[in-house]
Amino acid sequence: MVDLPDNLSPELTARMERDRAQGWKSPFRCRDIAVVRRENRPSDAASVWRPAFVRDTEKIIHIPAYSRYNGKTQVFSFRSNDDLSRRGLHVQLVSRVARDIGFALGLNGDLIEAIALGHDLGHTPFGHAGERCLHKVYHERTGRHFNHNVHSVRVLEKLNGRNMSLQVLDGVLCHNGEYEQRVFELSDLAGFDEFDATVEDCYVRGGAAIKHLRPSTLEGCVVRISDIIAYVGRDRQDAIEAGLMDGSEFDDGLGGAYNAWILSHASVDIIEHSYGKDRIEMSEELFAELRRAKRENYEKIYRAPSVEGECAEAIVPAFDRMYERLLADLLAGDETSYIFRHHIKRVRRALSYYDKDYDWQSDPDQTVVDYIASMSDGYFMELTEHLFPELSFPRRTYIR
Q1: What is the pLDDT of residues 166-192, one digit of tens each?
Q2: Closest C-alpha among 321, 364, 320 to residue 343
Q3: Dihedral sign, CA of 76, 81, 87, 91?
């Protein structure tokens, strides 16, 4: 097991205590007065009791996509076990880890919370397996790419009409925890025109563009690394709870206890190496350990036949059939279809509050993607079995 400190050095601890006594904040934090929005709405103005980025958090937690987090699984989609993580718990864990680190570094905790709670709003049902399925069928038809971080931006702006800050949208777009880095240096994002061009580039080039994204705030960087920290250990606990493997099968020998180990040791390491700096960084040792742990998770959990095979067998044909059926209904203008009744009408009604409308006709493929990505696991399965009775999903009941 790699030898990482479990506490801050005495020198940094003393420095932090002196700084905190003097009310120190990082000079590189994103200040509330720096907030940038597309529209100058009086209702979005900051107040002494509702600062700028608090308003972003409130916008996030009151949209349907936030409620649907709890119906979207993290890794294990067909196991009836309420102790397994769902997307809603994951974003809370990311928020907690990131806020702990951000507090120690003197950063803007409100901005961190908003980015963390909003970063997975665009996730599909069935986690990354569902994301791959939706990307495949969308890309085959259009040549464009679907990625959940990019779609999260669309959920906030295009599908819910929220006047989000540029800083939160940037943090959401750049959060992707599949691309780890040892040092996170800031981008020089200039404004919404550049941001919109970056989003479009992600649709056009997919992972080739996404892997080069860098947040423009330290707060966004903290959320990005906290995303990895939050899931790499928790997914191991879930694998053990699901009965997929015994804790002794992991190379580090910690089993489920690895989650507590990485949470504490990674936070200490990042604070030790980032305090007072204009970047977020970690030691070479922690970077190597995170990469090792992620690699082991992929080998033993995410790509295990009992997880990936089970999920792929059930959902690949379902996504293909669902996409084609909904697209046909849309092109035919069949307003009895669920894509009209449960999606287009609801989105248009929500947007009307902000004097906006849903441009669902100009890009039918995007509209189908919007609908499928919004579904919870349970909704997707029920609609699939209603439209295609010959298709079914594994049933792992509570009582067996």
Answers
A1: 999 999 999 985 677 899 999 999 999
A2: 364
A3: negative
Taking the C-alpha atoms of residue 233 and residue 254, their distance in angstroms, rounded to an integer, is 10
Phi-psi region of 29 (alpha: psi -120 to 50; beta: other; left: phi over 0): beta
What one-letter code names the amino acid at 103? F
Residues 217, 278 contacting (CB under 8 angstroms): no
Burial class of residue 62, CB neighbours in 10 A (0-12, 13-18, 19+): exposed
| Residue type (1 letter), 255 | G
Residues 6+ apart with CB under 8 A from 345: none
Dihedral class, residue 127 (left if φ above 0, else alpha if ψ from -120 to 50, else beta): left
What confidence tens digit (pLDDT) does each residue in 103-117 have?
A: 999 999 999 999 999
Helix (H, G, I), strand (E, B) or coil at 73: strand
Written as six digits, the tokens of 87 are 């997307």
Q: What are the residues whose beta carbons fall under 8 Å from the beta carbon of 391, sequence distance 6 or more?
A: 317, 318, 321, 384, 385
CA distance 380 to 338: 12
Helix (H) / strand (E) containing 318:
helix 310-332
Residues 28, 280 contacting (CB under 8 angstroms): no
- Return the pLDDT at 310: 63
Q: Which two tokens stand for residue 364?
A: 């039918």
Round to whole Å and give the CA distance between 12 and 18. 10
Q: Taking a C-beta distance cutoff of 8 angstroms, is the pair 122, 308 a contact?
A: no
How does DSSP classify residue 186? P
Q: Which helix (H) or strand (E) holds 172?
A: helix 166-173
Phi, psi of 44 (to 5 degrees): -100, 0
Whole-prediction pTM value? 0.96
Helices 127-142 and 310-332: crossing angle in degrees, nearest 10, is 40
Residue 50 burial (10 A CB sphere; 0-12, 13-18, 19+): middle
Q: What are phi and psi of 281, to 5 degrees?
A: -145, 165
Assess whether pLDDT exceeds 90 at residue 242: no
Per-residue tokens: 238: 């879930």
Domains of the chain (ranges; CATH) run 10-38+47-74+82-122+143-237+250-307 (1.10.3210.10)
Does residue 1 register a pLDDT over 90? no
Handedness of CA 4, 10, 16, 20 (dihedral sign): positive
